Amino acid sequence: MTDLDLRSLRLLPGDEKVVDKEIALLGFELGGQAYVPTPDRVTVALKVAQTVSGAVLHLRFAAHLTGPCVRCLAPAVLDLHIVAHEYQGSQPVPGDDLSTVYVEDDVLDLSQWAHDEVALALPEQILCKADCAGICPTCGKDRNLEPHTHEQSAPDLRWQALADLRDELTS
Ligand SMILES: [Zn+2]
Ligand SMILES: [Zn+2]
After folding, report:
1. Is 14 or 91 the better-scoring residue by pLDDT?
2. Domain residue limits, the chain
3. How far is the CA of 42 from the centre of ligand 1 (A)?
4. Cα–ligand 2 centroid distance for 143 (angstroms)
């Protein structure tokens, strides 16, 4: 876990400072599948802008995740570019909901913040490509490699039975 003591920056109102920090990113689970950051260490750029009333925190980093495509299970990669902002009041009071949850006693929990931002940036479904055709539910073949459809014989038979009945009733 990577922390940053904001007091160590010694910022006065009007000052701002950019700090690069290397942090370890944990893996994520989505729909029962594991997505792993590769590399698992990323460098984040944190900009702290001090004002009279508090500090504005800007976080920026890129993350690269790999894991299975939810439709065909082929490897999928996800490139995320995270830009996030938080605010920390100088005199936080209990119940102060403007101030970030990632700062406690002037120490910023960079790892947790970065982890949460990646989680927020994850798409609902991770796909190998936007139009992945997926695995065929009928025969289990990868429809990206072998595009195909199946004759739907069962519904045809039912329709045929109805057609026969209609013919009987109307004749
Ligand atoms: Zn796929
Ligand atoms: Zn099939």
Report:
1. 14
2. 3-121, 133-171
3. 27
4. 7
